[in-house]
Amino acid sequence: DAGVIQSPRHEVTEMGQEVTLRCKPISGHNSLFWYRQTMMRGLELLIYFNNNVPIDDSGMPEDRFSAKMPNASFSTLKIQPSEPRDSAVYFCASSSNSGRVTDTQYFGPGTRLTVL
Amino acid sequence: GENVEQHPSTLSVQEGDSAVIKCTYSDSASNYFPWYKQELGKRPQLIIDIRSNVGEKKDQRIAVTLNKTAKHFSLHITETQPEDSAVYFCAGGTSGGYQKVTFGTGTKLQVIP
């Protein structure tokens, strides 16, 4: 398995532009997580999907952020409009909770976002 | 919600010495405590985890201990090697149907050759 796939790996954009980050979870995993990592705030959970349904979006900073999971193999995180303070590394992670004990979250390589 | 605190924020040890990282959690319902290692520029990767039904777990040079009464858990790395240098994150949460875990702020471990 290729693991969790994220695209793009790097994104540089200007303030006010729309940014879309993409994630393909590991096949068979039914839980998907979006995290944001910064030096100041560490690793923050933004939103958690289970079986394609958003379960907890309490970490989404504000209305400028939105996330979707239209099917089991694809999710997007959108920022519109983007601001310089959104600059961070955004990780997607997936795991399986299909009755098995393991809860390991497997992280993707991350998308480094820079908003100028 | 869960609050996980992690100490120290940075740790330097000589190669071959042991390193200990400590975390505390607030939610008594938490029953799952993973530890992740993140090398510079890389993704976090699980290195070991422990559940609330055991007090200790070991995997080669890495061990974790859990004290449910005191709500703290620790990572122990023995015979440290330069490749152990990384940022280590503890996390706490619930396993099973709802898998949210809260991460600590990380410990940057430097192993000096």
Give a topology summary.
The complex is a heterodimer of chains A (116) and B (113).
Chain A: E1 5-7, E2 10-13, E3 19-24, E4 31-38, E5 42-50, E6 53-56, E7 65-71, E8 74-79, E9 88-95, E10 106-107, E11 111-115
Parallel strand pairs in A: 2-11
Antiparallel strand pairs in A: 1-3, 3-8, 4-5, 4-9, 5-6, 7-8, 9-10, 9-11
Chain B: E1 4-7, E2 10-14, E3 19-25, E4 32-38, E5 45-51, E6 56-59, E7 62-67, E8 72-77, E9 86-93, E10 101-103, E11 107-112
Parallel strand pairs in B: 2-11
Antiparallel strand pairs in B: 1-3, 3-8, 4-5, 4-9, 6-7, 7-8, 9-10, 9-11
Can you tell me the overall shape of chain B?
globular
What's the SSE pattern of chain B? EEEEEEEEEEE
Major sheet details of chain A: 7 strands, mixed
Strand content of chain B is: over 45%
- Helices and strands of chain A, in order, run as EEEEEEEEEEE
Residue stretches of chain A low in confidence (pLDDT < 50, at least 5 long) are none
User: From the alpha-carbon coordinates, what is the Rg of chain B to the nearest angstrom?
Assistant: 13 Å
What does this structure look like?
- Chain A is mainly beta and 116 residues long.
- Chain A contains no helices and 11 strands.
- In chain A, strands 2, 4, 5, 6, 9, 10 and 11 form a 7-stranded mixed β-sheet that branches. A 4-stranded antiparallel β-sheet of chain A has the order 1-3-8-7, with no helix packed on it.
- In chain A, a hairpin with a 3-residue loop joins strand 4 (31-38) and strand 5.
- The model of chain A has no long low-confidence stretch (mean pLDDT 92).
- Chain B is mainly beta.
- The A-B interface holds A 31, 42-45, 48, 50, 55-56, 91, 95, 97, 101, 103-110 and B 32, 34, 42-46, 49, 89, 95-106.
